[in-house]
């Protein structure tokens, strides 16, 4: 005896009473087969139903349902400890109906979008996946990518078909050959029974495909289909989309986000792109101006450093700046050590608690200094002999590190410059 699959007769049934016909164990938990079930087992691209099983008034979770073939038992993985269920137990099975219905919407939407891609562009569906946040299909067009206009046309076409309230019919055939009386979009030879899902008129359907999944009885129950994006995947068009309540939730959330962005720009939603473009131009101009100013500051600071090194004859120079960023300081530091031999340059950025060491003295290797002393003060970093970087949690630890470096330096005097 195999499980009677109630969802094949009534896809809207959300519970049933049944007897346990077999029990297995998986990871210390009971897995049960029953005389009948409303649970759809994972397959055909559609996720398994989840829900509960009640035994003697105690509820247990059904985490997953599976089968070995379309004519075998349905197995229900529970969170019940091994030995909870026994053959002959009477139980009540109940699915998470909201989860089921959303997957029904998404599965039928996938059929209709795939059929639309086939009828409009000759695209063949080579892959289908229902994920948590979206559904994907891979459409093969012999390497050609769909244009935005084509995607818009497909989206509009499939939604018009959804809103036409077409009948959805599932027929079972004893053999693959018998199923060919229907104009199935994708002919896949299959041993044993075959189920064919048709949308619209049976003789001239909007879409017709072999599928063992669960679908609404009318296309209008899909609600709507929204295409999110399309990208290349192994030479095919991977289309991200969703249907029904999931698509509505996402589109509503994005509409609210657009409204908030428009409010921030003090404009209407339709004017947001032009406002963002203008802002991007202003930002690019400011970045260019800041880059010029940074170059000016670097040149001025370099001149001051070189002059003080010349006046004092120091071989160790400490420089602190709250104006230049770490990368800008590094560029200036290289200019300084390339112009002065035998120099250890200590550069401090208080904003990020970062210390840069640059050296033109082969006896004072920056990477070794950081490796030896930075860990003593909770610092991390590393580098090469001519330059290294050490990062600290705060300035107190950084200053302690610098003091240690200064103690080890071979010069007789140090000069500080703070910008």
How would you describe what is shown here?
The chain is of the alpha+beta class. The chain has nine helices and 21 strands. The strands form five sheets. The chain has a six-stranded antiparallel β-barrel. A six-stranded mixed beta sheet has the order 19-20-18-17-16-21, sandwiched between helices. α2 crosses α3 and α6 runs parallel beside α7. It is elongated, with a radius of gyration of 34 Å. About 1% of the residues have low confidence.
What can be said about the biggest beta sheet? 6 strands, antiparallel, barrel
How many strands in all? 21
N-C termini distance: 86 Å
H/E element sequence: EHEEEEEEEHEEHEHEEEEHHEHEEHEEHE
Strand arrangement, largest sheet? 2-3-7-6-5-8
Radius of gyration: 34 Å
Beta-strand share of residues:
25-35%
| Relative helix content | 25-40%
Count of helical stretches? 9
The 3D shape can be described as: elongated
Low-confidence stretches: 411-415
Mean pLDDT: 93
Derived structural class: alpha+beta
Which helices and strands occur, and which strands form pairs?
Layout: E1 4-5, H1 6-9, E2 15-26, E3 29-34, E4 36-37, E5 51-55, E6 58-67, E7 74-81, E8 90-95, H2 97-121, E9 124-130, E10 135-140, H3 148-163, E11 168-173, H4 176-179, E12 194-199, E13 207-210, E14 225-233, E15 236-243, H5 244-265, H6 272-312, E16 316-320, H7 326-339, E17 344-349, E18 354-359, H8 366-373, E19 380-383, E20 387-391, H9 395-408, E21 414-418
Parallel strand pairs: 1-4, 16-17, 16-21
Antiparallel strand pairs: 2-3, 2-8, 3-7, 5-6, 5-8, 6-7, 9-10, 10-15, 11-12, 12-13, 14-15, 17-18, 18-20, 19-20
């Amino acid at each position: 005896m195999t499980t009677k699959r109630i969802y094949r007769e009534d896809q809207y049934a959300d519970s049933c009473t049944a007897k346990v016909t077999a029990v297995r164990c998986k990871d210390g938990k009971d897995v049960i087969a029953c005389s009948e079930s409303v649970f759809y087992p994972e397959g055909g691209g559609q996720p398994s139903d989840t829900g509960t099983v009640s035994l003697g008034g105690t509820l247990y979770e059904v985490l997953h349902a599976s089968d070995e073939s379309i004519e075998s038992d349905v197995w229900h993985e529970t969170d019940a400890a091994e030995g909870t269920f026994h053959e002959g137990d009477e139980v009540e099975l109940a699915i998470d109906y909201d989860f089921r219905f959303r997957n029904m919407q998404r599965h039928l939407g996938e059929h209709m979008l795939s059929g639309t891609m086939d009828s409009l562009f000759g695209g063949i569906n080579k892959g289908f996946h229902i994920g948590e946040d979206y559904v994907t299909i891979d459409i093969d067009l012999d390497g050609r990518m769909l244009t935005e206009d084509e995607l818009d046309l497909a989206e509009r076409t499939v939604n018009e078909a959804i809103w036409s309230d077409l009948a959805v019919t599932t027929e079972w055939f004893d053999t693959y050959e018998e199923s060919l009386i229907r104009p199935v979009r994708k002919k896949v030879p299959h041993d044993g029974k075959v189920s064919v899902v048709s949308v619209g008129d049976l003789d001239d359907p909007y879409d017709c495909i072999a599928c063992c999944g669960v679908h609404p009885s009318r296309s209008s129950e899909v609600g709507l289909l929204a295409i999110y994006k399309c990208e290349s995947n192994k030479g095919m068009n991977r289309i991200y989309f969703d249907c029904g309540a999931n698509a509505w939730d996402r589109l509503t959330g994005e509409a609210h986000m657009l409204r908030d962005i428009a409010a921030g720009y003090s404009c209407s939603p339709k004017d947001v792109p032009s406002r963002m473009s203008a802002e991007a131009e202003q930002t690019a101009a400011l970045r260019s101006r800041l880059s010029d100013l940074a170059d000016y500051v670097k040149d001025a600071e370099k001149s001051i450093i070189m002059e003080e090194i010349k006046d004092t004859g120091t071989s160790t120079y400490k420089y602190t700046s709250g104006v230049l960023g770490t990368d800008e300081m590094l560029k200036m530091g290289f200019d300084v050590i390339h112009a002065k031999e035998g120099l250890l340059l200590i550069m401090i950025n208080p904003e990020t608690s970062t210390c840069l060491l640059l050296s033109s003295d082969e006896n004072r290797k920056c990477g070794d200094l950081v490796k030896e002393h930075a860990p003593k003060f909770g610092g991390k970093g590393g580098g090469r002999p001519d330059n290294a970087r050490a990062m600290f949690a705060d300035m107190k630890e950084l200053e302690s590190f610098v003091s240690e470096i200064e103690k080890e330096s071979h010069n007789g005097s140090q000069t500080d410059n703070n910008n």
